[in-house]
Write a structure and sequence with these properties.
Layout lengths: L4 H9 E3 L7 E4 L3 E5 H13 L9 E5 L9 H17 L2 E3 L6 H9 L5 E4 L13 E4 L2 H8 L4 E4 L2 E8 L8 H12 L7 E6 L8 H10 L7 E3 L4 H9 L19 E6 L6 E3 L7 E3 H4 L6 E4 L7 H11 L9 E4 L4 H9 L2 H8 L2 E2 L19 E4 L15 E4 L2 H10 L27 E2 L31 E8 L6 H4 L3 H4 L6 H4 L11 H8 L2 E4 L12 H8 L2 E6 L4 H9 L3 E5 L13 E4 L2 H7 L2 E6 L4 E6 L4 H9 L2 H8 L1
Parallel strand pairs: 3-4, 3-6, 4-5, 6-7, 9-10, 9-12, 10-11, 15-16, 15-18, 16-17, 18-19, 21-22, 22-23, 23-24
Antiparallel strand pairs: 1-2, 2-8, 5-20, 13-14, 21-25, 24-27, 25-26, 26-27
Helix pairs in contact: 2-3, 2-5, 6-7, 10-12, 10-13, 18-19, 21-22
The structure holds alpha-methylisocitric acid and iron/sulfur cluster (SF4).
The site of alpha-methylisocitric acid has 13 residues, from helix 2.
Length: 643
């Protein structure tokens, strides 16, 4: 029986464990990426591991999230990251060079390699045939130190594409279609592998839009084959020597196959406040819009800007809205200038935003209060735009541009029928904004520069024998890491300062969370389904750990957040019977006796709610390695105790 592409890449990189769905396996990581918002902690952690230089084939440190620089803190982080990259042997992509995922696709990704990134949209690299996985920063630091990356061997779901997209329908509409049926938790433990004749009709950036937003399924990653289209992309990027043909065997078996006929894909839209709240654009057409944004790591390639420019050409955007465009990289921006795309956009009234994450993470271009904003981004969680009561809709560049003209949500097919074109002919290769690492024999001369806002990464305590803790917060389902540890222009500058950022944990749900946690000293959080979905930010585990949270008990967890909790010594438990959730309220005191021995001996433990006397069973599925990490008080302590 043949095997899938995912299995082929995993096999080539397997270091430990048996490649059987659900088993813990360790894989070799060829490349890593970090961005500034998660990166400072990564390099502080790497430094404390005492390893002088990265051991990967290639590691890149990007600056793209925190670029507002409203005071000294962001720039201090940039200086720290630049000096750490030079010293530890990484390439440093300077602010202004663009969004990590777009640049990595253009300049560094290699088919068949593994990529681990401290950002949940690292799977963008799957568009190039990489096995690209998002992880917490500490896992990325460990991979740079040469450790394997551990994950559950995934189930591989096949997505068979046939036909070809009709005019004004796009890759974004494909992934929104997948999200509609699979939902934000449907991808847990899965890799989505795209195949079939329809794949040949999609360019690498289009494939990358799909793999990028596969993160919203909660998937481990998504992957496309590496074929002649991939080769053409690499030729364009003057990196053709790195191309290699890669695909699943013709008789590969998938756990399940999702069939998508691209001829039938129509413009889709995700309604507030979840990426899986998807409808056809035609169903909500006519709703007035206050703001439109085109950009983010999902849809900011030159072709995305090109089609938008052609739709807008010679016209002026509606006077009731503002249109912002963030080119994904400097390469996109320069070729957009060279090829006249930016001119058309600006002439229509668009505001050109920096080549950075920007509006996607509430770093500027926030909508008006109660505003309706249409974005080509990947997440529309409540409040993420920087405006608590804004309504964020996720759409394709075609729908965004058409709606920018009419001022209302518009099915782009009702406006025009421009055929898909290729706008890449003006691309020029220039890596002058990427600083290579200093040679190893000069590394000792490099001094790491730290600003006053850069504080040490706190460590967790060793596991307690008995846990007596109060319930600091009880949440509903689908809590995102944006709820747990919000981002935005006020909080993002605190990413290097855990004591300060911890004051904002769960701010939108309970502004007093940090005070209650500190008062209690030892706390637990109760959650519903898919707790911790979304971003990879380990701050969503690190800051609660700093506030004394020792366990999180939920109905289910999202993958990256669960791994982050373990890395910082917080035990992720689930309810044996979800009905037990109903008998716990905030302020209750839970007791787990014999915790340390108990979790080693059994997967099922008993907790007592001393406030009502009700006993209930909680379950963990920690592998032996993870148990040791929890017992030692987190991955940093565990790694150092073994060095
Ligand atoms: C996001 O899109 O939520 C982020 C900001 O890129 C995060 C990383 C972070 O919080 O720094 C992610 O996706 O992992
Ligand atoms: Fe940046 Fe947004 Fe992409 Fe996250 S999703 S990496 S914030 S552009």
């Amino acid at each position: 029986m043949g095997i899938t592409l995912t299995e082929k890449i995993l096999k080539e990189h397997l270091i430990s464990g048996e490649l059987k769905t659900g088993n813990e396996i360790g894989i070799r990581i060829d490349q890593t990426l970090t961005q500034d918002a998660t990166g400072t902690m990564v390099y502080l952690q790497f430094e404390s591991m005492g390893i002088p230089r990265v051991k990967t084939e290639l590691s890149v440190s990007y600056v793209d999230h925190n670029t507002l620089q409203t005071d000294y803190r962001n720039m201090d982080d940039h200086r720290f990251l630049q000096s750490a990259a030079a010293k530890f042997g990484l390439h440093f992509s300077r602010p202004g060079n663009g969004i990590c995922h777009q640049i990595h696709l253009e300049r560094f990704g290699v088919p068949g390699k593994t990529l681990l990134g401290s950002d949940s949209h690292t799977p963008t690299g799957g568009g190039l045939g990489m096995l690209a996985i998002g992880a917490g920063g500490l896992d990325v630091a460990a991979a740079m130190a040469g450790a394997p990356f551990f994950l559950k061997a995934p189930e591989v779901v096949g997505v068979r594409l046939t036909g070809s997209l009709q005019p004004m329908c796009s890759a974004k509409d494909i992934i929104l279609t997948v999200l509609q049926s699979e939902t934000v938790k449907g991808g847990l433990g899965k890799v989505y592998e795209y195949h079939g004749q329809g794949v040949k009709t999609l360019s690498v950036p289009e494939r990358a839009t799909i793999t990028n937003m596969g993160a919203e399924l909660g998937a481990t990653t998504s992957v496309f084959p590496s074929d002649e289209i991939t080769q053409e992309f690499l030729i364009l990027q003057k990196r053709e020597d790195l191309w290699r043909k890669l695909e699943a065997d013709t008789d590969a078996e998938y756990s399940r196959i999702i069939e998508i006929n691209l001829d039938e894909v129509v413009p889709m839209i995700a309604l507030p406040h979840m990426p899986d709240n998807v409808r056809k654009v035609s169903e909500v057409a006519g709703k007035p819009v206050n703001q439109v944004a085109i950009g983010s790591c999902t849809n900011s390639s030159i072709n995305d800007l090109g089609i938008a420019a052609d739709i807008l050409a010679g016209k002026t955007i509606s006077e009731n809205l503002s249109l912002g465009i963030g080119p994904g990289s400097r390469q996109v921006l320069s070729s957009g200038i060279e090829g006249g795309i930016i001119k058309k956009l600006v002439a229509s009234g668009a505001r050109i935003l920096e080549s950075a994450c920007g509006a996607c993470i509430g770093m500027g271009f926030s909508p008006a209060s109660g505003g309706v904003t249409l974005r080509t981004f990947n997440r529309n969680f409540k409040g993420r735009s920087g405006t608590a009561d804004a309504e964020v809709y996720l759409v394709s560049p075609e729908t965004a541009a058409a709606s920018a003209l009419t001022g209302v949500i518009t099915d782009p097919r009702s406006l025009t029928e421009i055929k898909k074109k290729d706008y890449t002919s003006f691309i020029e290769i220039d890596d002058n904004m990427v600083i290579p690492p200093v040679p190893a024999d000069k590394a000792s001369e490099v001094e790491i520069i730290r600003g006053p806002n850069i504080k040490e990464c706190p460590k967790a305590d060793k596991l307690l024998d008995r846990l007596e803790a109060s319930v600091i917060l009880k949440t509903g389902d689908n809590i995102t890491t944006d709820h747990i540890m919000p981002a935005g222009s006020k909080i993002l500058p605190l990413r290097s300062n855990i004591p300060e950022i911890s004051k904002h944990v769960f701010e939108a749900l309970d502004p007093d969370f940090h005070l209650k946690a500190q008062k209690a000293g030892t706390g637990v959080i109760i959650g519903g389904e898919n707790y911790g979905q979304g971003s990879s930010r380990e701050h969503a585990a690190l800051a609660p750990m700093y506030l004394g949270i020792k366990a999180v008990i939920t109905k289910s967890f999202a993958r990256i957040h669960k791994a982050n909790l373990i890395n910082f010594g917080i035990i992720p438990f689930t309810f044996a019977d979800p009905a037990a959730y109903e008998h716990i309220k905030e302020g209750d005191i839970l007791v787990i006796e014999n915790l340390k021995e108990g979790i080693k001996k059994s997967k099922v433990l008993t907790a007592v709610n001393t406030s009502n006397g009700i006993e209930f069973e909680i379950v963990h599925d920690l592998a032996d390695r993870q148990l040791d990490i929890i017992i030692e008080g987190g991955l940093l302590n565990y790694t150092m105790s073994r060095n």
